[in-house]
Automatic annotation (TrEMBL):
UniProt cross-references to SUPFAM superfamilies, sorted A to Z: a domain/subunit of cytochrome bc1 complex (Ubiquinol-cytochrome c reductase), Cytochrome c, Transmembrane di-heme cytochromes
Cofactor: heme c; heme b
Full protein name: Cytochrome b
Entry's transmembrane regions: 42-69, 90-111, 126-148, 160-183, 195-215, 246-263, 305-324, 336-357, 363-386, 662-680
PROSITE patterns per UniProt: CYTB_CTER, CYTB_NTER, CYTC
Domain of life per record: Bacteria
Keywords from the named record: Electron transport, Heme, Iron, Membrane, Metal-binding, Respiratory chain, Transmembrane, Transmembrane helix, Transport
InterPro entries in the cross-refs: Cyt_b/b6_C (IPR005798), Cyt_b/b6_C_sf (IPR036150), Cyt_b/b6_N (IPR005797), Cyt_c-like_dom (IPR009056), Cyt_c-like_dom_sf (IPR036909), Cyt_c1 (IPR002326), Cytb/b6-like_sf (IPR027387), Cytochrome_b_C_euk/bac (IPR048260)
Length: 689
């Protein structure tokens, strides 16, 4: 359905190319003169958004791959090296990590739009099936990419998900061994996943080309589901659809930028800032949010093979949708019953996603089974039944008639609104009990100078926190990712290069071998990293009652706590991501010599109000008057705790100030650009109406 094109090049070079390879004519017929239904709404803009996101993911992924090391011993450190030492590496990492979530968000909206408006019906069956294939490839690519940082959740997520293939009769164990490259998740697994994660986006791009080709053959669907009949029903793709898509994309970029610059860890898991440890299993293993509905389906069925079958069937069933729904009317806009059941299905998917993030126990398991039945019943029972018993509303005679009549309510249906309120109430009720149970142990929120869109590190607090670390914390804890030169970086403690060099010289660094083959000690240099207090983990455990003190470089990102519903929604708008500093501050002040009644702690442990389980191996590290400050600040445990937590927030994210500053500039540009696109769109579309 490309064209009709009257493209006639005038440039001699273009003419020469066009006679031999008519690429310019193809582009003109497919993306300029291509007739587009004039009644497309903004839900169709997500096709352009997905194209943009695919390009963003491929470009950022290729650059990140240049610096990434796919080795089990080096992967975690290489990712941190990208964030800390590569020019704008933090930006590339945030764009790629948050981009995966934005990609899936856009594809889910794109799919739900197709479901609502019947875009899977004849003659667009192949178009829909290609879309399902793209979705499957995206899921595989996203899963493999999540493994690459080689954090705790990455490692154990890979272990759990790949183990699912062992449920396949006869060949299951062989498949798992092939995926692992051995008998457990390890270095061969990481190499396989890195290779496939790098390759699959280009496969996705190839299938996207087929998807667009199928779209141009069958033509675009539209909100009425009525095929174009005359030229009045369509407008040229450029400038009408192009400018509309540019406005939609610019608005989406504002939303995307919010995550990149202000909430980069909002959709992630704190455990993934802990290096992978095969000997320590996270308390609650969950995949990324976009897999949660299918994860809930998997866990709702007690039999492993049946659960795996149900999980994959939940996706594969989408490919058979053109034959399950045989209704002649495409759009649910003209099918009252189908419209209401569609919104109920959306709620079922949201609730499945919520259950996928909860522990598989009690009411969550029962609710998961009920919602799993509802999910499959929608496709296998409701849609076939509705196509036979439902009487649709009359369709407009043409697209132009629909546009001129301005039919269709602009407000949400009452039933859908009630359902949305029920969902909110259910989520609140489901999490309120957990929030009440944890209320006494939740670290109190402190006021931090670095919070909010304009937040900056308090230089005095950073320098005081560094002193507390040097005099107290460094006796047990390392800072493996911080070099002495970082103390003079912009946005840091504010040291000059000379001060950083002088600070480094106070340390003795083991170096060598020298010309005689011997190891030796020398004064520290700015390029050196903070030395660890113990030569290895075994020595650290032996000196600390069997518990190895964690590295503190990323501790404020690696520690978090649940905020519960609806607080986590408010956190998105208030940019609250200070759980880590709150946690560190609370732990340092949470020691109590008096163990409360009813609480038992093992021998060799100490009671801490805010530590999970309350039994911590670390003795109380701070006491009033322990460290003196040159600036006259109070020498109290509360001051020490807040200063060192501030310092450790900087060690976890040394480029935070640059991130927020650039983010504000990007936001101003995007808002102005979106406004320009909006008024341009109004001007262009004024001629079409």
């Amino acid at each position: 359905m490309s064209g009709p094109s009257d493209y006639q090049p005038t440039n001699p070079a273009v003419k020469w190319i066009e006679r031999r390879l008519p690429i310019f004519g193809l582009v003109h017929s497919s993306f300029v003169a291509y007739p587009t239904p004039r009644n497309l709404n903004y839900w169709w803009t997500f096709g352009a958004i997905l194209s943009m996101m695919l390009v963003v993911q491929i470009l950022t992924g290729v650059i990140l791959a240049m610096h990434y090391t796919p080795n089990a011993d080096l992967a975690f450190r290489s990712v941190e090296g990208i964030v800390r030492d590569v020019n704008y590496g933090w930006l590339l990492r945030n764009m790629h990590a948050a981009g995966a979530s934005m990609f899936f968000l856009a594809v889910y909206i794109h799919m739900f739009r197709g479901l609502y408006y019947g875009s899977y019906k004849e003659p667009r069956e192949i178009l829909w099936i290609l879309g399902v294939i793209i979705y499957l490839l995206m899921m595989a690519t996203g899963f493999m990419g999540y493994v690459l940082p080689w954090g705790q959740m990455s490692f154990w997520g890979a272990t759990v998900i790949t183990n699912l293939f062992s449920a396949v009769p006869y060949f299951g164990e062989s498949i798992v061994t092939l995926l692992w490259g051995g008998y457990s998740v390890g270095n061969p697994t990481l190499n396989r996943f890195f290779s496939l994660h790098y390759l699959l986006p280009f496969v996705i791009a190839g299938v996207v080309v087929l998807h667009v080709w199928a779209l141009h053959v069958a033509g675009q669907n539209n909100p009425t589901g009525v095929e174009p009949k005359t030229e009045k029903d369509t407008v040229p793709f450029t400038p009408y659809a192009t400018i509309k898509d540019m406005f939609g994309v610019s608005c989406f970029l504002i939303f995307f930028a919010w995550f990149i610059f202000y909430m980069p860890n909002y959709l992630g898991d704190a455990d993934n800032y802990i290096p992978a440890n095969p000997g320590v299993t996270p308390q609650h293993i969950v995949p990324e949010w976009y897999y949660l509905p299918f994860y809930a389906i998997l866990r709702s069925i007690p039999n492993k093979l049946a659960g795996v079958t149900a999980m994959f069937s939940a996706i594969i069933v989408l490919a058979f949708l053109p034959w399950l729904d045989s209704a002649k009317t495409r759009s649910s806009k003209y099918r009252p019953l189908a419209k209401q059941f569609f919104w109920i299905f959306v709620v079922v998917c949201v609730l499945l996603g919520y259950l996928g993030a909860q522990p598989p126990e009690g009411i969550y398991v029962i609710a998961g089974r009920v919602l799993t039945f509802c999910y499959f019943a929608y496709f296998l029972i409701l849609l076939p039944l509705l196509s036979r018993i439902e009487t649709p509303r009359p369709l407009p005679n043409s697209i132009a008639a629909d546009v001129l009549s301005k039919t269709g309510s602009k407000s949400a249906p009452m039933v859908s609104t009630v359902i949305a309120l029920m969902v909110a109430g259910t989520l609140f009720a489901g999490s309120a009990q957990n929030a009440r149970a944890a209320e006494d142990d939740t670290p109190p929120s402190q006021s931090w100078s670095f919070a909010g869109p304009f937040g900056k590190f308090d230089r005095g607090a950073l320098q005081r926190g560094l002193k507390v670390y040097k005099e107290v914390c460094s006796n047990c804890h390392s800072l493996n990712y911080i070099a002495f030169r970082n103390l003079a970086d912009p946005g840091g403690p504010g040291f000059s290069e000379a001060q950083a060099a002088a600070f480094a010289s106070d340390y003795k660094i083991k170096d060598g071998p020298n010309d005689q083959g011997d190891m030796f000690e020398r004064p520290g240099r700015p390029a050196d990293y903070f030395p660890a207090p113990f030569p290895n983990e075994q020595a650290a455990r032996a000196a600390n009652g069997g518990a190895a003190p964690p590295d503190l470089s990323l501790i404020t990102k690696a520690r978090s706590y649940e905020r519960g519903f609806p607080q986590f929604i408010f956190d998105f708008f208030t940019q609250f991501q200070e759980q880590g500093p709150n946690y560190v501050d609370a732990i340092l002040q949470g020691f109590d010599d008096k163990v409360p009644a009813g609480v038992t702690i093992p021998d060799g442990s100490y009671y801490n109000k805010y530590f999970p389980g309350h039994a911590i191996k670390m003795p109380k590290p701070l006491s009033d008057g322990q460290v003196t400050f040159d600036d006259g600040s109070p020498v109290t445990v509360a001051q020490y705790a807040k200063d060192v937590a501030t310092f450790l927030m900087w060690t976890a994210e040394p480029h935070m100030e640059a991130r927020k500053r650039i983010g504000m500039q990007v936001f101003v540009f995007l808002i102005l650009f979106a406004g320009l696109m909006y008024f341009t769109k109004k001007k262009v579309w004024a001629n079409a109406h």
